[in-house]
Design goal:
CATH topology of the largest domain: Cathepsin D, subunit A, domain 1
Structural class: mainly beta
Strand order of the largest sheet: 6-1-10-9-8-7
Number of domains: 2
Oligomer: single chain
Order of helices and strands: HEEEEEEHEEEEEHH
CATH class of the largest domain: Mainly Beta
Number of helices: 4
Shape: globular
Number of strands: 11
Strand content: 35-45%
Largest sheet: 6 strands, mixed
Distance between the termini: 45 Å
Length: 188
């Protein structure tokens, strides 16, 4: 059974349309993670991003501007970051699965509460481990939101991505899914 967060069941869903930014396109937005200092839970909109997943009853959650969403489950998500040439795997626990949410949200308050920390200056955010090692960077795009340079790691054993040489060639759509919904131009 889902237990509410310590802070209550209010979540800050992004109502700012950042898609008009020249540096953002629909493909990038769909898979980006935003660090948020105003929400109360990590949120992921991709079911296949969960390494550990537990379905929950259709939990109604509210956000800014009376926006209502439904969480369908929660679990653990692994993220990969590239910071100063070093790849780091970040693991987030108790992430809500909210398929209709536009963005994936990394809760800065929970990051801090778990013993990590972050700094912000000149519209740049840096996440640090408990030991003080920088692991991820983000750029402020609007009030309380930072576009992070991280991506989720799909759960292994995806049956769509298991191929043998004796099978006929796979379709562009299959390859598109196997490579994390990369654009068709990237597949070429």
């Amino acid at each position: 059974m889902f237990s509410p967060s310590d802070e209550g069941q209010y979540f800050n869903f992004d109502q700012n349309d950042v898609s008009n930014s020249a540096s953002n396109d629909e493909q990038v937005l769909y898979y980006d993670w935003l660090a948020d200092s105003a929400t109360t839970s990590h949120i992921c909109n991709k079911r296949k991003a969960f390494m550990v997943y537990t379905p929950i009853e259709n939990l109604s959650i509210a956000g800014v501007g009376q926006l209502k969403m439904h969480a369908k489950g929660r679990g653990t998500v692994q993220l990969q970051s590239l910071y100063k040439g070093q790849v780091t795997i970040l693991q987030l626990h108790n992430v809500l699965y909210v398929p209709d949410n536009r963005h994936n949200l990394l809760l800065l308050g929970r990051w801090d509460r778990d013993g990590h920390y972050y700094t912000g200056q000149n519209s740049q955010l840096t996440l640090f481990t408990k030991e003080g090692r920088g692991v991820a960077r983000g750029t402020k795009i609007t009030n309380n939101l930072y576009k992070m340079q991280i991506k989720y790691i799909p759960k292994p054993q995806d049956p769509h991505c298991s191929f043998t040489a004796s099978k006929p060639p796979k379709s562009w759509e299959t390859w598109h899914k196997c490579f994390g919904h990369i654009g068709y131009g990237g597949l070429q």
